[in-house]
Amino acid sequence: MAVLDGYGVAIIGFLILSLGVGIMTSRLVKKSSKRYMIAGKSLPLFFIGTMLAAQSIDGNSSLGNAGLVYVFGFWAGAVLPIGLAICLFLTGLFYGKKLNKMAMLTLPDFYYRRFGKAPEGISSVLLMISFTILVAGNFAATGYILSSVLQIDLLWATLIGAVVVLVYTFAGGLFSSAYTDIFQIYLAIIAFWAAFLFFYGGYAGVDFATIIGATPTGYLDLSGLTDIGNGALINWAAIAALGFGDIVALDFMERVFAAKTPKTAQKGAFMGAGLTLLTVIPTSMLGIVALFLIPDITDPFLALPEIALNHVPFPIGAALLMGVLGASMSTANGGLLAISSVISRNLIQRDVLRGIMKKTGMEDKKLLKTTRIATIPMMVAAFILASQLPQPGIYLIVAFDIVFAGALAPLTLGLFWKKANMPAAMASLIVGTTLRLVLFFTIPVELAGLDTMIPPVVSFALFIGVALATQKKYPGEQRHGVVDYEPPEEDVVRGEDLKGYVPPVGGKLA
C-alpha cells in the first residue's frame, strides 16, 4: 500500500508536472513526422546541450553508478559518466557537424544513404536491441525510486514510471523531451551536488575524512584502472563501450539532427559533455558515502534512495529523488522515441511498404501515426526486461557493447573514407556483432573486458580489408545528400542545408 508522506507528495507532483508539460508539447508537433522525430530540425543551443546532457545523465549513470561504486569501488561507477562525456566530446569534435548537415530523421538513414538497404536493416535491428536495453535500465531506475518512496512493489513502481514516460512521449515526441529535460536534468545536477556537499561539509554529523578512512582498500585508489584483479579491464572496457560505442546512439544522434545548424549540433555536444562531467564526483562519491552509512544494504541499487530518505534533510532528499527520477525518465523518453522512429521510418516505411507491399512510401501523417503507435509495444518490451532483470548501470554498458562491436566502424569510415562501401559495412556489422556474442560465452572470467574491446578492432580492420578488396565491383560512392523521403512542403530540407555533400548520379536534393 502506497504511503504518501512529504517525499511521496513531491514525487507524485513531479510525475504530474512531467506528464503535463510533456502532453502540452503535442501542440508543437503540428501533425508532422519530422517535427515529432527531430523537432523540425529547429532547436537552439540551450535545448540541444541540455537534451544531450539529459540523455547521458540518466538512471544508469546516477543510481546505477552509486550502486556499482557501493559493490566494486569508485571507478566501477565513475566510468559511466566519464565514458558518456568522452562520447559527447568526440561527437562534437568529429561527428556532429557532418551528420547534422545530412538532414536525416534517424541514424539508420545514414547506413541507407551510404551503404544501402541491407546495412540499414541490420543497423536498425542492432540499434533497436541496444536501446530497448537502455530504456529498460532507466525504467528499472524509476521503479527503484517510486518503490522506495511510495512503498509499493518494484514491479508496479516500474510500470507506473514506464506508463508516464509512454504517455508524454506518445504526445509530444522530441518536443516533450526538450521541454521536460529543462527542469528534470538541472534539478538532478543540483541535487547530486547538494547531497554530496552535505556529507563533504560534515553536516551529517560525520567528518568526511572518517568516511574516506573507512572505505575498503582498493575502492578509491587507481587500482581500479591499473589492476586487472580489481576490475581494471572491465572498467576500461566500460569507458571504451560508452566513449566510442555510444557515438552510435539513436538518442544522441536524434538530438544532433534536431539542432538548427551544424555549429549548434557541435556546441551542444560539447555543452552536454561538460554537464555530464559535473556529475562524476557527486554521484560516484555518494556510493562511497552509502557504503559507510548503510554497510549491509540488501540491494546496492537502493543506495541513493536510502540516502535521500534517511540521511539528508528533506529538501535535499526530495530533490535527489526527483533528480534521479527525472534523469531516468528523460533518457527513457528519448530512447523510446528513437526506437519507435526507427521502426516506422527504417523498417515499416522503407522495407515493409517498399519490399512487401510494393509501395513507394508513406504519407507524412501516417508516418507520424505509425511512430506514435510503435512507442506502445517498445515500452512493453523494455518494461518486461526491466521487471525481469532490474539492473540499472549494468544495462548502460551492455546496450552500447552491442553497437560498439559492429556498427561504429561503418559510421566512422562511411563518414571519413571515400572507399567505404556496402560489402565492408555488411562484413563489419555481421562479424563484429557475432564475435561479440561468441566472446561473451568464451572469454575467461579473469579476462572479462577484452570481450568488449576486441570485436570493434576486428570490425574496423575487416571493414578496411573488405572495402579495399571489393573496390572494383563496389567502388565507394558518396551517397550523402540523397533525398529518399519526400516530406511535406513545410518540412522540405533545402539543398543549402546539405552544402558540402555531392549526390551521386541520379540522386537529387529537395
Outline the structure in words.
With 510 residues, the chain is an all-alpha fold. The longest helix is centred in the middle third of the chain and has 47 residues, at 154-200. Helix content is 73%, strand content 0%. The chain has one domain (6-406, 478-498): Sodium/glucose cotransporter (Up-down Bundle), CATH 1.20.1730. It contains 22 helices and no strands. Mean pLDDT is 88; it is low at 480-510. α7 packs antiparallel against α8.
Which descriptors apply to this entry?
single chain; 510 residues; mainly alpha; Sodium/glucose cotransporter
**CATH-defined superfamily:** Sodium/glucose cotransporter
Secondary-structure arrangement, i.e. CATH architecture:
Up-down Bundle
| Strand composition percent | under 5%
For the residues shown, what is the average pLDDT? 88
Total number of strands: 0
The major beta sheet can be summarized as: none
Rg: 22 Å
Number of domains: 1
Q: What is the C-level CATH assignment?
A: Mainly Alpha
Poorly predicted segments = 480-510
Topology record:
Blueprint lengths: L5 H19 L1 H4 L3 H6 L6 H12 L3 H13 L1 H28 L6 H8 L1 H34 L3 H47 L7 H6 L9 H4 L5 H12 L6 H9 L3 H16 L2 H14 L9 H8 L3 H43 L7 H25 L5 H13 L1 H9 L5 H21 L7 H20 L41
Concise structural overview:
Helix content is 73%, strand content 0%. The chain is mostly helical and 510 residues long. It has a single domain (6-406, 478-498), classed as Up-down Bundle (Sodium/glucose cotransporter).
